[in-house]
Inverse folding.
């Protein structure tokens, strides 16, 4: 498979001497440093380094003649820049500062960037592992970052492992992988570096002086961790090399610098902090009333009941089964009367291929689905049978999907607690492409799915959140739960840990997973 071949190639490969990039300073227009990067193989890159307010830098590297995809919707707002001043320029190096105790030292041959805070060297962008492919088959790139003051490396959520990242540089275990995938009903393994449902490409070098990096890129990544030299070697499948350097110098400050970029959660509803009950599945009105009655009978607390796919009409979203749930308004009112309890239904991003299903017909007619390379909608199998997936890069598709949540478009939802966006890695049953949409599928604007794969869940919850805000005219905070996440998802949704196994080993691993989640 492509991902395995590519990862192995980049993991063991080091640039030849003629592939090492040397830098030439061009200018510092508007306080942004710009360099030409060239090597003996004839490759040319443009590198821009800018200061970002609140002790941060941003490094962007790309080809001058290739416009790599720049992701959207991850950052809460465009970061405010902080002008850099060139303090020294020589034949082999440049020194610049931001006037706030942050300084960078750029070595030209080969390219290397050292980042200092209050004269302490915190991190280094090591250009000796900088590779940028630009072929029809691959636009992957690699780079290394070292954390000079770190005692341990943490981050790269989501992995079922310890908070401190393990050493993967000796080839005994795979590098940490960031690609949103689903492992099906058998769940995921634990104490491994395999990918999971979510990917947050932020990494912290924790120590007496803590710093971090955030890779602003939505493609698949592999990250080789070397705990001997406290470094991380990133192998990124596609997209732009866009790197935020977080100067700390404490862990709390470094995390705050990251969340200032990607946003913070809103205050959760009080009932959302209560006791939740879920199973697959509650098949009808009687099931719902029976389970709530049993909880009351045995005096066991319950605030929220979750509805899986069986509440729908033939597994079509934004419908109720008229046979199993003939009067959803009466049911929802009854649940509310039982101590202000809430129902939260599942709602996925795939749409059942079913002519005369209005949502499918609308999306097909308006080209709202993710497409194959030949322009036809991508179709695969999920719980509803043959399905296609909403393309949330399309602004009209986002508007359409958001308005499906209005009361007039999804009747009987007046007292729903919120929504559970599941299977949004996106996940499917065919294992040809690791149970997800193939990388070569095409989204709005002729964007390859590989450029934005890890962001699909973010795009869905962002749209669902907007739909609920519109539905309630901005008067209520929406409650959302998502299985798939990316940097920025926290602005819209809570996260669950997916399909765990009911053992103490899995319960134990949820503790470090939750800690890592709260650093992301």
């Amino acid at each position: 498979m492509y991902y395995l071949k590519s990862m192995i190639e980049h993991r063991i490969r080091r640039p030849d001497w003629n592939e090492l990039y040397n830098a030439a300073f061009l200018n510092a227009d508007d306080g942004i440093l710009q360099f030409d990067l060239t090597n003996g193989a004839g490759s040319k890159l443009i590198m821009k380094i800018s200061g970002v307010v609140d002790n941060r830098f941003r490094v962007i590297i790309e080809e001058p003649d290739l416009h790599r995809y720049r992701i959207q919707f991850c950052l809460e707002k465009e970061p405010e820049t902080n002008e850099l001043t060139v303090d020294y320029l020589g034949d082999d190096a440049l020194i610049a500062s931001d006037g706030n105790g942050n300084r960078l030292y750029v070595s030209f041959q080969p390219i290397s960037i050292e980042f200092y805070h209050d004269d302490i060297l915190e991190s280094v962008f090591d250009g000796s592992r900088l590779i940028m492919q630009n072929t029809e088959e691959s636009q992957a790139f690699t780079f290394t970052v070292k954390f000079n003051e770190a005692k341990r490396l943490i981050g790269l959520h989501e992995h079922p492992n310890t908070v401190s990242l393990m050493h993967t540089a000796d080839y005994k275990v795979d590098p940490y992988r960031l690609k949103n995938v689903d492992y099906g009903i058998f769940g995921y393994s634990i104490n491994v570096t395999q990918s999971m449902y979510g990917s947050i490409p932020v990494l912290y070098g924790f120590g007496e002086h803590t710093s971090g990096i955030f890779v602003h890129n939505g493609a698949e990544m592999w990250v080789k961790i070397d705990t001997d030299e406290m470094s991380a070697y990133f192998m990124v499948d596609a997209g732009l090399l866009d790197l935020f350097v977080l100067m700390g110098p404490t862990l709390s400050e470094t995390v705050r610098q990251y969340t200032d970029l990607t946003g913070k959660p809103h205050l959760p509803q009080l009932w959302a902090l209560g006791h939740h009950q879920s199973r697959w599945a509650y098949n009808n009105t009687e099931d719902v009333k029976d389970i709530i009655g049993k909880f009351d009978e045995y005096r066991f607390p319950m605030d929220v009941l979750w509805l899986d796919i069986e509440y729908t009409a033939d597994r079509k979203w934004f419908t109720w089964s008229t046979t199993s749930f003939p009067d959803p308004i009466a049911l929802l009112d009854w649940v509310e009367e039982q101590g202000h309890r809430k129902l939260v239904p599942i709602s996925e991003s795939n749409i059942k291929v079913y002519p005369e299903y209005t949502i499918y017909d609308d999306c097909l007619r308006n080209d709202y689905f993710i497409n194959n390379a030949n322009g036809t909608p991508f179709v695969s199998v999920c719980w509803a049978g043959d399905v296609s997936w909403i393309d949330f890069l399309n602004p009209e598709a986002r508007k359409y999907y958001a308005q499906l949540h209005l009361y007039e478009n999804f009747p009987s939802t007046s007292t729903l607690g919120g929504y559970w966006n599941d299977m949004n890695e996106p996940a499917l049953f065919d294992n040809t492409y690791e149970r997800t949409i193939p990388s070569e599928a095409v989204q709005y604007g002729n964007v390859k799915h590989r450029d934005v794969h890890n962001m699909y869940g973010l795009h869905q919850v962002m749209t669902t959140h907007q739909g609920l805000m519109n539905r309630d005219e901005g008067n209520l905070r929406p409650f959302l739960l998502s299985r798939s996440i990316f940097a920025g998802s926290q602005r819209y949704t809570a996260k669950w840990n997916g399909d765990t196994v009911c053992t103490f080993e899995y319960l134990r691993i949820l503790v470090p997973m939750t800690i890592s989640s709260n650093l992301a």
User: Anything to note?
Assistant: The longest helix spans residues 456-471. The chain has a mean pLDDT of 95. Residues 427 and 436 are 5 Å apart (CA to CA). The first strand starts at residue 22 and ends at 27.
